[in-house]
Amino acid sequence: MAKFFALTIIVIAIASAIPILRHTWPEPPDISVHGHLIDEQMSETMAEAGISFLAAQFILAIFIWKFSNRPKDAKIAKFPGGAKGLVIAAFLLVGTEVLALGIFGTKAWASIYFTPPAANAMPIQVQAGQFAFYFRYPGADGKFGPLHAALINESNENFFGLDQTNDQDSKDDIVTAEMAIPVNREIFLLMHAKDVGHSFYVPELRVQQDFVPGLDLSIHFTATKIGRYEIVCTQLCGLGHYNMKAYLSVYSQEDFDNWLKKQAALQ
Amino acid sequence: MATTIHEPPEIEPRRRGEPRNGGWRNLVPANGDPRVVRDYSPPPASTGIWVVVYAITMTFAALTSALVVRKGSSLDWQSFSLPPILYLNTALILCSSVTLEIARRRLATFMGGKAIPGESPARWLNITLVFGLLFVTGQYVAWSRLRAEGLYLATNPSSSFFYLLTGAHVLHVLGGLVGLLYVIGKLRKSELRRSTLDAASRYWHFVDILWVYLLVLLWMKL
Amino acid sequence: MHDVSAHAAQHHAPPQGFIRKHVFSLDHKVIGKQYYALALVAVFVGMVLSWIMRLHLGWTNLAIPGLHLLSKNGAPGDIMTPEYYLQLMTMHGTIMVFFVLTTAPFAAFGNFFLPIQVGAEDMPFPRFNMMSFWVTFVAFLVLVSSFFVGDGPTLGGWTQYAPLNAVGSVGGPGEGLGVVLWAASIAIFCIGQLLGSLNFITTTLDLRVKGMSLMRLPLTAWAWFITSCMGLTAFAVLMPACILVILDHVAGTSFFVPSNLVINDQLQPHSGGSTLLWQHLFWFFGHPEVYIAIVPGMGIVSHILITNMRRPLLSHRVIIGCMAAIGILSYMVYGHHMFVSGMNPFSSLAFSFPTLVITIPATIIVLIWIGSLYGSRLRINTASLFALGFISMFVSGGVSGFFLAQPSIDIMLHATYFVVGHFHMVMAVAAIFGIFAATYFWFPKMTGRMMNETWGKVHFWLSFVGAYCIFMPFHYLGIAGNVRRYQAFVNEYLQPLIPVHKFITIAAIATGIAQFIFLYNLIHSRFWGKPAPDNPWEATSLEWSTPTPPPFDNFGGKLPVVYHDPYQYGVQSSTGDYVMQASSEQVVTEHEEK
């Protein structure tokens, strides 16, 4: 039984590693400027975690194989180096891994969160509410008009609560149910929560950020590939959480301009 | 064995070498050196009360951080002045700690075999109890005062925290009063253990100190 | 005269009558068994919930026979509504984390064995101990009652994030009374556990018998001690947080709900609350809670492995130190659940470092386990199989933690099935394996009968392979971006992953059915198992010095004296290759804790 158990551990370990090595269910392809930093972190971590995983399972299996069913008078031997050696090994191995991943990992995080958006980043506001995302473009004046929670009215399609009669800045705001951005242009995304917690996740864009009711947060990113992607909500927000999504279209600058003109006409 | 509460117990001289903690033999390393052992262990009530004190401290720490965060998270915090009776209540509870200490010393003398003439050994415990009850009443008066000013639990976050913190504290004071009643009951039956009295006293002093902390917190933040 | 001993005498009178002996019992052993029974009921309820969830995830429009009996509104025509999925999911998580993983390894086995392992006759506060069980039981009833009220249990997940947890029924089905019942249940549970921790800590510090220095405590006793210290801090913080939630519901306060929220076109009557405050309070409890779930398992696995390796671990003190380090560090890492929550990004980095560092003591423990296998005389029985299985599972679950500890990677993996895979691996599998190992190991002592080894091994094999089949694929799903807490997968990019979900569902149901083998074994052996000797495993710690099962005062009136450290194996003595802690026999030994 012991040897069979050892074999099972090894088989399971290898079987677990195969889908990772073969990229059977891969990460969605990266379409962002900063994403490669995250992907590099991921690969490094996968290598280190993978090796640790396989090594630990293998050694566990080998020891189970070797040291079970020994005769009753077999001598108990001590692992070379004893506890001290293992403690030192753990500190060295894990410590260096920790430092490496921790310190180099800050670069990826800093590039996203500690660098301010570019001066010419295009501002877009996204509002998350049960159970849809709506987007607002500032229009020709480049300014967002103020939000009035009391004016929100879904049936009139006033999703943001804009007062387009009295607020000058709101008059040219463009509200859409789909998000479109031009390729290779930095986007400054302002995030507003209408009701409860939600989250903005586009795997290809390597972006995930929670909406926090009461806090107006922002992120910035740049898409590098034209295409159509899904924005999904990842913060449990109620019964429609699974269905809360919107499409993100990355267009060429020209196509984007056309799209925006069409949207403006629909307001 | 004393037959009434007014007679101190007869103390048998401790036999040489006999452990002092009533049969719970126990070896505790002295000064951290495992090879040198001492012949006693703290009675569980003494350790236990520190556990209780720590847990209650953590609860109020959580409430404190909730207060700080809530105050800083939005602009709707409306300060109000604390009802002046709170200061009287503070004096009352501080007095109760003093009377409790007097009670402990009197009891130590009594349990050591020396009667105190004309005085029930439970007298200062009863006085402490009265101060405690006065404190609770005074807190109720403070709440009535606030209600008269139109400040209820949900009126404003500041009032929410006032009621929450003082209410939670009063609950723990009531627990302390129950503890004191338990001690007095045990004393009446001549069954009071030193560790029980110590535990109840530590708890009571803690509740007192906790009140002073809450008063300062409320005074600073509200 | 001294009446100090009168208090000691209070422990000595045996209980009379059925109610005192089996229902409102002051005996820590009965209380331990009551906790175990509660955990057993809870785990089967939680498991059945998981089956229903998995069936729905694999086959979303499946009519699950009988489901409408559980809820007319939640499953009209036996087809689960989206909200009902979330409600079942919330109850699954809450029941499993609180009433199984905190209850069984810590409250059940700890209550039964800690006093015996330190050499005491009972815990120092038996009435508080009895209260702790019944309070926990009431908490369970309150939680389960939410299945049967109005619009059902809360749907906000076991994490109950604000402001969804505080806006009331407008937030969705179950968000009114369901949340209040959830919060009340958990607040009550916290009180029960605090009472338990009180007893555990005072037992360990004050009731050790003569010769039982702290370093001579078995690793299980240390694990329970460290766990109760963690619990003291964690539960004392969760309880007020739950009270604040209840106040937001019933008293009109706004601790967690900010202003200007609009739900269903209605402006909500709240103002100024802090959404993130809940997360900070909850995770300050929540992260230590998962270590509360695993540290007793580490102690149990160490204890069982040592007995079955016939040698002590390479270092007793290092394991204790690492468990303690994990306990302390566990309070510094909680922000790793909040990397993308809107918390200050500097804080995210700050939390990430201790999260990575906590890997070190965990790794040391695993290395010491594996290193101690080297040169040992490993015995294979069901208990040791589950203990070894724990190591494999803990490694698997632990390495996925490496990814989640880094904020930049968490951007991709947060709220995906990767997280679900990680925590199920360490909790649903490793911690449960610890419970199984403890059951098979200590059943003889608790009941006086042996469990059936053959059925035990069948149970092990099906569970070990089955658990990997269920939870390993979760990681692949997460890497592919599969978001969690979805009742159905409607997004285009998720369609290729649905076959994986079907595979997982089948594995889950098969593995779940295997658990009935365990249940059968447990019940059958309890009444008809082979009678057990006092020390069937040739083990050394004090629980094996008592009669089987132990009498009401554990040692039959004669407290033992401890002469040895808890793991004197691999020596030559009159009993064989081990010497018991309570044996006065002197043996030649390489190293002995004093």
Descriptive key words:
heterotrimer; A: 267 residues; alpha+beta; Immunoglobulin-like; 2 domains; five-stranded mixed β-sheet; three-stranded mixed β-sheet; 10 strands; elongated; C: 594 residues; mainly alpha; Cytochrome C Oxidase, Chain A; two-stranded antiparallel sheet; 17 helices; 4 strands
Overview of the structural elements:
The complex is a heterotrimer of chains A (267), B (222) and C (594). With 267 residues, chain A is an alpha+beta fold. Chain A folds into 2 domains: 2-69 and 80-113, no CATH class; 122-266, Sandwich (Immunoglobulin-like). Chain A is 37% helix and 22% strand. Chain A is built from 4 helices and 10 strands; from the N terminus they run H-H-H-E-E-E-E-E-E-E-E-E-E-H. A 5-stranded mixed beta sheet of chain A has the order 3-2-1-5-8. The longest helix of chain A has 33 residues, at 35-67. Chain A is elongated and about 95 Å long. The model of chain A has no long low-confidence stretch (mean pLDDT 94). With 222 residues, chain B is mostly helical. Chain B has a single domain (44-221), classed as Four Helix Bundle (Hemerythrin (Met), subunit A). Helix content of chain B is 64%, strand content 4%. Chain B contains 5 helices and 2 strands, in the order E-E-H-H-H-H-H. Chain B has helices at 44-73, 85-111, 123-148, 157-188, 194-221, and strands spanning 28-30, 33-38. In chain B, helix 1 (44-73) runs antiparallel to helix 4 (157-188), helix 2 (85-111) packs antiparallel against helix 5 (194-221) and helix 4 (157-188) runs antiparallel to helix 5. Chain C is globular, with a radius of gyration of 24 Å. Residues 1-11 of chain C have low confidence and may be disordered. Chain C has a domain at 31-106 and 118-293: Cytochrome C Oxidase, Chain A (Up-down Bundle), CATH 1.20.210. Chain C has helices spanning 4-10, 18-23, 28-58, 67-70, 82-118, 126-145, 177-206, 219-250, 275-309, 316-329, 345-357, 359-373, 382-404, 407-413, 417-447, 453-479, 498-528, and strands spanning 262-263, 266-267, 569-573, 576-578. Chain C has a two-stranded antiparallel ribbon. Chains in contact: A-C, B-C. At the A-C interface, helix 1, helix 2, helix 3 and strand 7 of A face helix 5, strand 1, helix 9, helix 11 and helix 12 of C.
Summary?
By secondary structure, chain A is α+β, with helices and mostly antiparallel strands.
